[in-house]
Amino acid sequence: MxxxxxxxxxxxxxxxxxxxxxxxxxxxxxxTNRTVQVDQANxxxxxQQADQATDDTIRLNWREKLVxxxxxxxxxxxxxLIGVLVVFAAIIALRSTLxxxxxxxxxxxxxxxxxxxxxxVAIGNACSFCCAPYIIRLLYRGNELxxxxxxxxxxxxxxVTGMDIRAEKIYxxxxxxxxxxxxxLFRKAQCIFFTxxxxxxxxxxxxxxxxxxxxxxxxxxxxxxxxxxxxxWTLVFQVFLSxxxxxxxxxxxxxxxxxxxxxxxxxxxxxxxMFLVLFPLSRRNEYQADATAALWVGTDLxxxxxxxxxxxxxxxxxxxxxxxxxxxxxxxxxxxxxxGSLG
Length: 343
Prior knowledge:
This protein is mainly α. It has 13 helices and four strands. A four-stranded mixed sheet has the order 1-2-4-3. A hairpin with a 7-residue loop joins β3 (180-183) and β4 (191-195). α3 (62-101) packs antiparallel against α4 (111-139) and α10 (255-297) crosses α11 (299-312). The radius of gyration is 24 Å and the shape is elongated. 27% of the residues are buried.
């Protein structure tokens, strides 16, 4: 990777041999800043812009959608399973230790019990978050990304952001859609993943803008923020249960009813957490990452990249309003409006 602090190299500043080599590696001619600006006049107006001469939209049939959705579900389930197992193991270990030190102190609903639950959830979620990059690499066959376009994008963003970006943390993964994602709890352990379909279909400037978006998530510490929100929610929920004497009521139930009540209260907790907290927080984080990335690479280029991403994935048609409120990402129109309002 080139040294930080230099300007993003223009095409006419590169040695002819290097330029020829890059032309053979890239999917099309490498774009300079001036070329991108010319393209922006025709491409950043959103749905009204003309489609590319070559239609590179990814249209998945129902089997491919099922496979792609299945992989996502497996990834989420594996991460959740790891977290749940660690939580239960931590509860058992911590509770037995506390009982030896202070018998009777961990009675359900007591303050020590609530603290124990929060600590166990913290340990479990930390393991789940830290395992996520490895799960993604395993399921999607991730390999370290070596691409001259990415090297130049990293170099430029280092000079703009001052962030310590390590190229070995960037991976190419298989996938049936064009996508990029950052995973991991702490900055030094986070990985950024690009699907090969994104790398094949996007220009160099658009790849840089996509990388800027994922780096903005890391800059704003969105993963630790979600982790902290989960702990606060757990604390509030446990305090609520203790205030309504849930555990006393639960203990008074007959055995056949206990499992149903237990599953019901936890499912209700999960849905409230997702729809009242995590999904709105995720959309807020996307807006914040959009704003920061647009500041780093320019509003016009970033709007172009957003449009291209939705176009490639055949997602230009906005979803129904009630479905949009249930998503982890805002709609394309909402994101373009927010970025456009930045001036």
